Amino acid sequence: MFQDKKVLFSGMQATGNLTLGNYLGALKNWVKLSDEYECFYCVVDEHSITVRQDPATLRKRARALLTLYIAAGLDPEKNCIYYQSHVSAHAELAWILNCYTYMGELSRMTQFKDKSAKHADNINAGLFTYPVLMAADILLFQTDVVPVGIDQKQHLEITRDIAQRFNSIYGDTFTIPEPYIGKAGAKIMSLQNPEKKMSKSDENPNGSIYLMDDKDTVIRKCKRAVTDSEGNICYRDEQPGVKNLIDIYCACTGMTPSEVEREFDGKGYGELKMAVGEAVAAQLTPLQTEAARLEKDKAYIDSVIKNNAEKASYFANRTLRKVQRKIGFPDRIR
After folding, report:
1. 197 is catalytic
2. What pTM was estimated for this model as a whole?
């Protein structure tokens, strides 16, 4: 589709509040990719409604997330930043791909099992076919690479299976996407349970640092971070709480774990926690300032939404029309 660059696709759900983990593990790294790839970054609001959402809150969070993409440094002139719901080809292709996806494949998806357990009162069909919409998201843009974490690896695998199945029936139609293998983003764990990843949906608000947390809140949460009784600041798996704090400090300062160990040699956990809090606040303050500025510039954000939806629709519809012709849908009369 693009002559000079490979295509990269990724996105985040417009639910909850983005955490430091989302920023350091993904968003911050996206900024570095636009020179190398043609990037499509989606606010995946259609995926969000597999769980009941308050309409006004969903709209507000979707706009805030798109604004955060830009505040973090994603240039909407170089990257296509758009709402999933503004590009109808996502839903149209998802329906078609549903007819080339097997029930057994979907029933094995771990996310369906996990969310069904959490939302037993709302096990809807959308929750079951969620991976097909995700496949459509990726395949619409003839995507070459997709940045994926461990929890999304299974979704990329089923996307590849669906694309290969379709291609084997109808000939070369979809690019088979590969996982993006680059410098790993920092894997940030919960401050209260360092055995699990920092999450937007953590029931304990002290476990996550949110991107809009002010400096006092950030420092307070860091001071409350779980450590251990050993008293030594060492970067090792046997001290997951301390290791997580060092990971955060490294991601915010550019230091290596061994350099951090030397800096805090002979010092206590209290000093480490305070330093981490200060480093995180220093990292987030420019992002928060820029987000606040952009939120006030309604005309600019509206123009980004409109222009990028048109760009995404153009490229998505090229693939959709190709698919519709291959499976035998009637040509449109122009």
Report:
1. yes
2. 0.89
Sequence-distant (6+) residues with CB within 8 A of 219 are: 274, 277, 278, 281
Distance CA 158, CA 175 (A): 14
pLDDT at 2 over 60: no
Question: Who's near 147: CB < 8 A, 6+ residues apart?
Answer: 8, 10, 26, 29, 30, 33, 179, 180, 182
197, 221, 243, 273: the catalytic one is 197
pLDDT score for 190:
95
40 near 72, Cβ under 8 Å?
Answer: no
Provide the 8-state DSSP code for 176: -
pLDDT at 206 over 90: yes
**In Å, what is the CA distance from 279 to each residue of 103, 237, 273?**
48, 23, 10
CATH number of the domain within which 241 lies: 1.10.240.10
200, 215, 223, 311: which is the annotated catalytic residue? 200
From 28, 115, 221, 243, the catalytic residue? 115
Give catalytic status of residue 28 as yes or no.
Answer: no
3-state secondary structure of 194: coil
Q: Answer yes or no: do 152 and 210 share one domain.
A: no
- Phi and psi of 252, rounded to 5°? -90, -25
Q: Is 183 a catalytic residue?
A: no
For the chain, the domain total comes to 2
pLDDT tens-digit map of 116-174: 667 677 788 888 899 999 999 999 999 999 987 666 788 899 999 999 999 999 999 99
Structure tokens belonging to residue 200: 């937007």
Pairing label, strands 80-83, 37-43: parallel
Domain that holds residue 249: 205-293
Mean pLDDT rounded to a whole number for the chain = 91
Amino acid (one-letter) located at 223: K
43, 84: one domain: yes
